[in-house]
């Protein structure tokens, strides 16, 4: 499948969650077995060496990270919203458009020096991915990059990650909000 074929599998929902927003819905790509497999294969091909862990952010990021971890034969690190993980965790607050949120991971989820690739369905402003990177770094691991199915370049998230020293690639880009 070409990138144009994959792009055609992403549904655009106008005016969601508010007027003027074009919501890029990746669930329609995930429903298409051949398209989903091709997307994961294409993302995996951009990773120059196997990381120890693929870190996925809740919730659609879990899907992308799991498939990528299996494809790259790496472990899976779940980064969750606050209050979802049992046991000892570390947390990182981050800014949203209207307020803040918090991500957590187990304190022993990754060893110092482990190499970690971040993975999610979409990069918009970059707040979630940057918070995840801070968590991983606080644990002593090394963030070697980030991969996304979709980039919304007008929102600047990929640029923010790259400014933070995180090599970033996305499979598809959609202009506009």
Automatic annotation (TrEMBL):
Pathway: Purine metabolism; AMP biosynthesis via salvage pathway; AMP from adenine: step 1/1. Its EC number is 2.4.2.7. It comes from the Bacteria. Residues 31-151 form the Phosphoribosyltransferase domain. It is found in: Cytoplasm. Keywords: Cytoplasm, Glycosyltransferase, Purine salvage, Transferase. The keyword Ribonucleoprotein does not apply. The keyword Transmembrane helix does not apply. GO terms for biological process: adenine salvage; AMP salvage; purine ribonucleoside salvage. It is an enzyme of class 2 (transferase). One of its GO terms (molecular function) is adenine binding. It catalyses: AMP + diphosphate = 5-phospho-alpha-D-ribose 1-diphosphate + adenine. GO terms for cellular component: cytoplasm. It holds the Pfam family Pribosyltran. Belongs to the purine/pyrimidine phosphoribosyltransferase family. Homodimer. Catalyzes a salvage reaction resulting in the formation of AMP, that is energically less costly than de novo synthesis. This is Adenine phosphoribosyltransferase. The lineage of its organism: Bacteria, Pseudomonadati, Pseudomonadota, Alphaproteobacteria, Sphingomonadales. The gene is apt.
